[in-house]
Design goal:
This is BTB domain-containing protein. This protein is mainly α. It is built from 10 helices and 3 strands.
Protein backbone atom coordinates (compact mmCIF):
# COMPACT_ATOMS: atom_id res chain seq x y z
CA UNK A 1 0.00 0.00 0.00
CA UNK A 2 1.42 3.39 -1.00
CA UNK A 3 1.97 6.09 1.58
CA UNK A 4 -0.69 8.79 1.61
CA UNK A 5 1.31 11.15 3.83
CA UNK A 6 2.78 14.24 2.24
CA UNK A 7 5.79 13.62 4.53
CA UNK A 8 7.71 10.80 2.89
CA UNK A 9 11.08 11.72 4.40
CA UNK A 10 12.38 12.95 7.70
CA UNK A 11 13.85 15.93 5.85
CA UNK A 12 10.31 17.04 4.96
CA UNK A 13 9.47 17.13 8.68
CA UNK A 14 12.55 19.31 9.20
CA UNK A 15 11.54 21.71 6.43
CA UNK A 16 7.91 21.96 7.50
CA UNK A 17 8.16 21.65 11.26
CA UNK A 18 5.05 19.44 11.08
CA UNK A 19 4.33 17.84 14.47
CA UNK A 20 7.34 19.54 16.05
CA UNK A 21 7.63 19.50 19.81
CA UNK A 22 10.62 21.80 20.43
CA UNK A 23 12.02 25.08 19.16
CA UNK A 24 15.69 25.85 18.70
CA UNK A 25 16.80 29.43 18.09
CA UNK A 26 20.17 30.72 17.01
CA UNK A 27 20.62 34.32 16.01
CA UNK A 28 17.65 35.36 13.90
CA UNK A 29 16.68 31.78 12.94
CA UNK A 30 14.24 29.51 14.72
CA UNK A 31 13.60 25.88 13.85
CA UNK A 32 10.52 23.87 14.85
CA UNK A 33 12.02 20.47 15.54
CA UNK A 34 11.42 17.02 16.96
CA UNK A 35 12.96 15.76 20.21
CA UNK A 36 13.09 12.20 18.97
CA UNK A 37 15.44 13.23 16.17
CA UNK A 38 17.46 15.82 18.08
CA UNK A 39 18.18 13.21 20.73
CA UNK A 40 20.58 11.55 18.27
CA UNK A 41 22.89 14.17 19.81
CA UNK A 42 23.65 13.59 23.51
CA UNK A 43 23.86 17.39 23.87
CA UNK A 44 20.23 17.82 22.82
CA UNK A 45 19.13 14.69 24.64
CA UNK A 46 20.48 15.98 27.94
CA UNK A 47 19.00 19.43 27.39
CA UNK A 48 15.52 18.23 26.39
CA UNK A 49 15.15 15.26 28.74
CA UNK A 50 17.05 16.41 31.82
CA UNK A 51 16.03 18.72 34.59
CA UNK A 52 16.84 21.84 32.59
CA UNK A 53 14.67 24.78 31.62
CA UNK A 54 14.97 23.65 27.96
CA UNK A 55 13.22 20.38 28.83
CA UNK A 56 10.45 22.19 30.69
CA UNK A 57 9.96 24.93 28.10
CA UNK A 58 10.67 22.75 25.02
CA UNK A 59 12.85 25.48 23.59
CA UNK A 60 16.51 26.33 23.42
CA UNK A 61 18.51 29.37 22.40
CA UNK A 62 22.05 28.78 21.20
CA UNK A 63 24.63 31.53 21.58
CA UNK A 64 28.20 31.75 20.27
CA UNK A 65 27.27 29.65 17.23
CA UNK A 66 26.39 30.74 13.72
CA UNK A 67 22.86 29.95 12.47
CA UNK A 68 24.17 28.27 9.28
CA UNK A 69 26.35 25.98 11.42
CA UNK A 70 23.41 25.08 13.64
CA UNK A 71 21.35 24.41 10.52
CA UNK A 72 24.10 22.12 9.23
CA UNK A 73 24.11 20.18 12.50
CA UNK A 74 20.31 19.92 12.55
CA UNK A 75 20.25 18.82 8.90
CA UNK A 76 22.84 16.15 9.72
CA UNK A 77 20.81 14.88 12.68
CA UNK A 78 17.70 14.62 10.49
CA UNK A 79 19.28 13.16 7.35
CA UNK A 80 22.73 11.78 8.18
CA UNK A 81 24.06 13.92 5.30
CA UNK A 82 26.83 16.49 5.66
CA UNK A 83 25.38 19.64 4.09
CA UNK A 84 27.17 22.49 2.38
CA UNK A 85 26.51 24.48 5.57
CA UNK A 86 29.17 22.29 7.20
CA UNK A 87 31.37 21.38 4.22
CA UNK A 88 31.59 25.05 3.25
CA UNK A 89 34.66 25.55 1.10
CA UNK A 90 36.35 22.17 1.61
CA UNK A 91 39.10 23.87 3.63
CA UNK A 92 41.05 22.82 6.68
CA UNK A 93 39.29 25.62 8.58
CA UNK A 94 35.85 24.29 7.58
CA UNK A 95 36.74 20.82 8.87
CA UNK A 96 38.20 22.20 12.10
CA UNK A 97 34.89 23.98 12.63
CA UNK A 98 32.97 20.80 11.77
CA UNK A 99 35.01 18.90 14.35
CA UNK A 100 34.35 21.58 16.98
CA UNK A 101 30.62 21.48 16.23
CA UNK A 102 30.69 17.69 16.51
CA UNK A 103 32.41 18.10 19.86
CA UNK A 104 30.02 20.78 21.11
CA UNK A 105 26.89 18.85 20.10
CA UNK A 106 28.54 15.52 21.00
CA UNK A 107 28.07 13.95 17.56
CA UNK A 108 30.78 11.33 17.13
CA UNK A 109 30.07 10.67 13.43
CA UNK A 110 30.46 14.36 12.62
CA UNK A 111 33.82 14.46 14.40
CA UNK A 112 34.94 11.32 12.55
CA UNK A 113 33.96 12.77 9.18
CA UNK A 114 35.94 15.93 9.95
CA UNK A 115 39.00 13.88 10.91
CA UNK A 116 38.81 11.90 7.66
CA UNK A 117 38.62 15.10 5.63
CA UNK A 118 41.43 16.70 7.64
CA UNK A 119 43.60 13.64 6.98
CA UNK A 120 43.23 14.27 3.24
CA UNK A 121 43.85 18.00 3.60
CA UNK A 122 46.99 17.46 5.69
CA UNK A 123 48.33 15.06 3.06
CA UNK A 124 48.18 18.01 0.65
CA UNK A 125 50.10 20.18 3.11
CA UNK A 126 52.70 17.42 3.58
CA UNK A 127 53.22 17.25 -0.20
CA UNK A 128 53.76 21.02 -0.27
CA UNK A 129 56.32 20.81 2.56
CA UNK A 130 58.14 17.94 0.85
CA UNK A 131 58.27 19.89 -2.41
CA UNK A 132 59.62 22.97 -0.67
CA UNK A 133 62.01 21.59 1.91
CA UNK A 134 63.08 18.17 0.72
CA UNK A 135 63.10 18.63 -3.03
CA UNK A 136 64.11 22.29 -2.90
CA UNK A 137 61.30 23.24 -5.25
CA UNK A 138 61.05 26.96 -4.56
CA UNK A 139 58.26 27.33 -7.13
CA UNK A 140 55.80 25.41 -5.03
CA UNK A 141 56.00 25.97 -1.30
CA UNK A 142 53.42 26.02 1.40
CA UNK A 143 50.73 28.60 0.68
CA UNK A 144 50.19 31.03 3.56
CA UNK A 145 46.57 29.91 3.89
CA UNK A 146 47.62 26.26 4.31
CA UNK A 147 50.25 27.24 6.88
CA UNK A 148 47.75 29.34 8.83
CA UNK A 149 45.16 26.54 8.75
CA UNK A 150 47.82 24.03 9.84
CA UNK A 151 48.74 26.32 12.75
CA UNK A 152 45.08 26.75 13.71
CA UNK A 153 44.58 22.97 13.67
CA UNK A 154 47.57 22.52 15.97
CA UNK A 155 46.17 25.17 18.31
CA UNK A 156 42.77 23.45 18.44
CA UNK A 157 44.21 19.94 18.81
CA UNK A 158 46.59 20.82 21.63
CA UNK A 159 44.58 23.47 23.50
CA UNK A 160 42.82 20.79 25.54
CA UNK A 161 43.65 17.44 27.04
CA UNK A 162 40.15 16.16 26.27
CA UNK A 163 40.21 12.64 24.84
CA UNK A 164 37.69 13.80 22.26
CA UNK A 165 40.52 15.77 20.61
CA UNK A 166 42.94 12.82 20.50
CA UNK A 167 42.10 12.05 16.82
CA UNK A 168 43.21 15.59 15.92
CA UNK A 169 46.47 15.11 17.80
CA UNK A 170 46.99 11.81 15.99
CA UNK A 171 46.74 13.67 12.67
CA UNK A 172 49.99 15.43 13.51
CA UNK A 173 51.78 12.14 14.16
CA UNK A 174 50.63 10.91 10.76
CA UNK A 175 51.60 14.21 9.16
CA UNK A 176 55.16 14.18 10.47
CA UNK A 177 55.53 10.47 9.70
CA UNK A 178 54.89 11.31 6.03
CA UNK A 179 57.86 13.64 5.91
CA UNK A 180 61.13 11.96 4.98
Amino acid sequence: MASTSKFDSVEEYLKSGHMSDVKVTCGSRTWNLHKIILCRSPFFEKAFTGDFKEAHQNQMTLHDTEPQDVHGVIFYLYTGIISSDLEKDNSIQAYIQMFELGDFFDIKDLRQHAVKRLTIKLADVARSVIDLVIRGNSHSGVPAEQFNDFSRLAQVAYSTDSQTYEPLRQLFLVFFARLP
